[in-house]
Design a protein that fits this description.
The protein has 347 residues and is α/β, with parallel strands linked by helices. The protein has three domains: 132 residues, NadA-like (Rossmann fold, 3-Layer(aba) Sandwich), CATH 3.40.50; 88 residues, Rossmann fold (3-Layer(aba) Sandwich), CATH 3.40.50.10800; 78 residues, 3-Layer(aba) Sandwich (Rossmann fold), CATH 3.40.50.10800. Helix content is 45%, strand content 14%. It contains 15 helices and twelve strands. A four-stranded parallel beta sheet has the order 2-1-3-4, with helices on both faces. Strands 6-5-7-8 form a four-stranded parallel beta sheet, with helices on both faces. Strands 10-9-11-12 form a four-stranded parallel beta sheet, with helices on both faces. Strand 7, helix 9 and strand 8 form a beta-alpha-beta unit. It is globular and about 60 Å long. The structure holds iron/sulfur cluster (SF4).
């Protein structure tokens, strides 16, 4: 969505898109009355945003009311980090989870960065500490240390390079070292091992951390059930899923990668093993294609809503936003900058 379009056009954009997607609360389409009610609040928020020199960034897993109503830019972690880095506005309202708002602050430290729910956890980001990473570094002194972007600023600060689900395979493949410490996604680590094995590349992956409490719930039985019921469906999954789910999928990739795959595919039915917000974006972008609702919900992402966005915009001067120690932020920035450098020509 373009930032400088008129409020009337923004409302039209909301109507056009919300009328094509499923309301996860009711399981049916948004009614005209529901959209009208949402439009009033959306107009108010968009006015406040302009008056307060604010930019709203939203992850695809947020509610479609945010994605189509008030966000200036929607994206996955990688695209949002780039947008945050380039932001000119004094205030960045980041609709996502805590590690994403921290990343925005690391990349653009002079801006006020506010997460509307103030804190919103992620099972991956809380799955490992900087001390645990330092202990691994000590044990494997020759290993390159990669952290998934879903990690705290403290963890990023003690890693060599940050990665996202969109570039992790490429970065691992291009890594010269034979040993790689990868944190904090244990299933993604297994999927990296499978990828390297397929390519005949020998590297040792030393993994530590946790799993995504949304993607780790998908399993092979569910996938086979979908395949039996919808044999013509293409199965797409995120690399945070179990290795057997990824292995049996037609496409495995980042959120942006899945959106691209569906757009370019001639298939008409897709089973999406990822968060429901992505299904809403797929529905809006692909009228005529059907999406089987096996999506799960990230409760933390859904804590961003129009009410707390409006409240943040009304109280901007009183809110401090994300605060990070300067030294720590600089070290964490090095890991993120290394990711941008190592993927310069890819996206
Ligand atoms: S979907 Fe998983 S990885 Fe993404 S924010 Fe939620 S818990 Fe974290």
């Amino acid at each position: 969505m373009q930032k400088d379009i008129s409020l009337e056009d923004k409302t039209k954009y909301l109507f056009d898109n919300l009328s094509k997607v499923t309301n996860i609360t009711t399981g049916s389409w948004f009614s005209l009355k529901e959209i009208n009610d949402i439009a009033n609040q959306v107009t108010q928020i968009n006015k406040l945003k302009r008056e307060n020199d604010a930019l709203i960034l939203a992850h695809y897993y947020c509610s479609p009311k945010i994605l189509f109503g008030v966000a200036d830019f929607c994206g996955d972690s990688y695209a949002l980090a780039k947008k945050a880095k380039e932001a000119k506005e004094q205030n960045i309202i980041f609709c996502g989870v805590t590690f994403m708002a921290e990343t925005a602050k690391i990349l653009n430290p002079d801006k006020k960065v506010i997460l509307p729910p103030m804190t919103a956890g992620c099972s991956l980001a809380s799955g490992i500490t900087a001390q645990e990473v330092l202990a691994l570094r000590k044990k494997y002194p020759n290993a390159k240390v990669l952290c998934y972007i879903n990690s705290s600023a403290e963890v990023k600060a003690v890693c060599d390079t940050c990665v996202t689900s969109g570039n992790v395979f490429k970065i691992v493949e291009n890594t010269k070292q034979d040993q790689i410490i990868f944190v904090p996604d244990l299933y993604m680590a297994k999927n990296i091992e499978a990828y390297l094995k397929n390519k005949g590349i020998k590297k040792e992956i030393i993994a530590a951390g946790a799993t995504c409490c949304v993607h780790d719930k998908f399993n092979l039985a569910q996938l086979n059930d979908v395949k039996n019921k919808y044999p013509e469906a293409k199965i797409i999954s995120h690399p945070e899923c179990l290795p057997e789910v990824c292995k049996n999928s037609d496409f495995v990739g980042s959120t942006a990668g899945m959106l691209k795959f569906v757009k370019e595919s001639n298939a008409k039915i897709f089973a999406v093993f990822s968060e429901w917000g992505l299904i809403n974006m797929l529905e809006a972008q692909n009228p005529g294609k059907k999406f089987i609702p096996c999506g799960r919900i990230c409760a933390s992402m859904k804590r961003n809503n129009l009410n707390n966005i409006e409240s943040v915009l009304k109280n901007l001067t009183d809110l401090q936003g994300v605060i990070l120690d300067k030294n720590l932020a600089q070290k964490a920035k090095q890991a993120i900058d290394n990711m941008f450098k190592e993927t310069e020509n890819d996206r």
